[in-house]
Automatic annotation (TrEMBL):
The lineage of its organism: Bacteria, Bacillati, Actinomycetota, Actinomycetes, Streptosporangiales. This is Radical SAM protein. SMART domains: Elp3 (SM00729). It comes from Nonomuraea diastatica. Pfam families: B12-binding (PF02310), Radical_SAM (PF04055). Residues 215-448 form the Radical SAM core domain. InterPro entries: Aldolase_TIM (IPR013785), BchE-like (IPR051198), Cobalamin-bd (IPR006158), Elp3/MiaA/NifB-like_rSAM (IPR006638), rSAM (IPR007197), rSAM_sf (IPR058240). Residues 12-146 form the B12-binding domain.
Length: 508
């Protein structure tokens, strides 16, 4: 075949999933970045990128029918899987080759291809831009399918998986020396004009409706996401519930960082930037280099929302954030109980460190978006109550601009999910770390219950997890979630929850 048109869609959340605090306010940049590389590598291909989180499903369906793409690429999260399958079905009916990518596709790629004939390929790359471009070349007959990096596909021998480097060597700039870790310079600055103007207008409206009160006296002209660094300092010992596949630290050069800021200002009048670096606090040296490289023409209008960690927060880091223009941080606080924090995250984490970080940011005038995870390994009614009390402390002391809370979901790409799929590993970890397996028989059923399916119910797997690993029952976890969220909402703090259904949470 000859690929002449590609439609890239970030699938919107399924109907029964509650929103999180940032839903629909910041763009799904992945589809824009994919479209940018495709346009550069295949200039004759017509490429459109849209975000199903803000574009109604009926419009997406109509676009598939009218555009009739040769290739339909879908960004898939666990929270949008049913919608993604619907899009794949529509794509196949329109004659498209269908490709799934993003977190859920990476974690469940083999199961998806075994169960879903409407999905032709799965891209498991963390940096998927060059894999998708290579796939288009393969579909055009210009290279073998076996040469496409991190691609999963059906073959006569079963499911093939090309475990090849995601970024081609000839794309990496400045190899060696001081720039050896600046591999993300290979990813070009996204061309945000490849997403319809209506999407950008909707992001801005959503942001102002939800967060406009934080910008009194300021003019917010546009919002965008960017991702010029990736990874986390916890790469060797990740948080137990973290499902990010590649936590190795990788960066763009400071010059590339500011080039993207400048381009986004010019293309969509961006003034608010959500830098999706998995943990900005993991590399204060890089932050310092970015701050010192800031060009004079950028001005002070560019404001940043960044991921950060309490255990890594120091006065020096906060001062760097202020110089960069950080106005809000996304900080996973997870628990108000030191014992649980050490189980969930590691030895450096504690309630004291959580509180210290919150105070430092508050004193600096930097807003905090916080999150709490309930029902970790060894959770007890007492530790759960400590977290509820901590949530009240955060709200009473006006620490939180927004706050999420939910029971732990054992992502199958995370350590918690791996314990569910490997009972012997779970028992050994429990013995080594000092928590208890509460239902051995149920644990032994987990590999057969979830190991071969591509469709996982969030509530079911969270309930199973709590029965096996948490002394606090599922009902107690849900009650605590309601208590935290309702307490926050009574005083006007924005709340949300990530992987929970409307049926479970009901109306507050």
């Amino acid at each position: 075949m000859k690929v002449r048109s590609v439609l890239l869609v970030n699938a919107g959340s399924d109907a029964d999933i509650v929103t999180i605090a940032n839903d629909g306010t910041f763009p799904a940049l992945g589809v824009v970045s994919l479209a940018t590389v495709l346009r550069q590598d295949h200039p004759d291909v017509d490429v459109i990128a849209i975000d199903g989180q803000i574009t109604p499903m009926a419009e997406v369906e109509r676009l598939i029918a009218e555009f009739s793409p040769d290739v339909l690429g879908v960004g898939v999260l666990a929270t949008s899987y049913e919608n993604s399958l619907r899009l794949a079905e529509l794509g196949k009916n329109a004659g498209a080759v269908t490709v799934f990518g993003n977190d859920q596709a990476t974690a469940m790629g083999e199961q998806i291809l075994r169960h879903r004939e409407v999905v032709d390929y799965v891209c498991a790359a963390d940096v998927g831009e060059f894999s998708l471009s290579a796939l288009v070349s393969a579909l055009d007959g210009e290279r073998p399918i076996e040469s496409v990096p991190e691609l999963l596909y059906r073959s006569p021998d079963g499911i093939g998986h090309n475990r090849l480097p995601e970024i081609p060597a000839d794309r990496i700039k400045g190899r060696g020396g001081a720039l050896k870790s600046m591999v993300l310079d290979a990813i070009p600055v996204p061309d945000r004009t490849l997403m319809p103007d209506g999407n950008w207008n909707r992001y801005l409206d959503n942001y102002l409706n939800r967060y406009g009160m934080f910008h009194e006296g300021e003019k917010v002209t546009g919002v965008t996401t960017m991702n010029r660094a990736r990874g986390c300092a916890r790469v060797k010992a990740p948080c137990h519930f973290c499902g990010i596949m590649d936590l190795n630290l990788r960066f763009s050069s400071p010059e590339m960082f500011w080039d993207e800021v400048r381009t986004a200002q010019q293309q969509i009048s961006a003034s608010i930037f959500y830098e999706a670096f998995d943990s900005m606090s993991s590399s204060p040296r890089w932050v310092k280099a970015v701050v010192e490289a800031k060009p004079d023409d950028i001005g002070d209008d560019a404001k940043f929302f960044v991921y950060t960690q309490a255990a890594e927060t120091t006065p020096r880091l906060v001062e760097l954030y202020q110089r960069l223009g950080v106005y809000r941080v996304n900080m996973g606080l997870e628990s108000g109980d030191t014992r649980m924090l050490k189980f969930l995250k590691g030895p450096r984490d504690s309630l004291e460190n959580n509180q210290r970080a919150c105070r430092l940011f508050k004193e600096a005038g930097i807003l905090i978006h916080g999150s709490l995870v309930l029902g970790g390994p060894g959770e007890t009614p007492e530790s759960l109550e400590n977290t509820v009390r901590f949530g009240r402390w955060l709200i009473d002391n006006e620490m939180m601009a927004s706050l999420e809370a939910q029971p732990l979901y054992p992502d199958f790409g995370a350590l918690t999910g791996k314990w569910m799929m490997d009972p012997n590993l779970a028992r050994q970890v429990a013995k080594d770390r000092g928590f208890e397996i509460l239902d051995d028989k149920l644990l032994d059923l987990m590999p057969s219950k979830y190991g071969s399916t591509d469709m996982v119910d969030f509530d079911d797997v969270s309930k199973d997890w709590s029965k096996i690993f948490s002394h606090a029952s599922w009902d107690e976890l849900i009650d605590a979630t309601h208590t935290i969220r309702s307490y926050a909402e009574r005083v006007g703090t924005i709340t949300g929850s990530g992987r929970m259904t409307q049926t479970t949470l009901g109306s507050l």
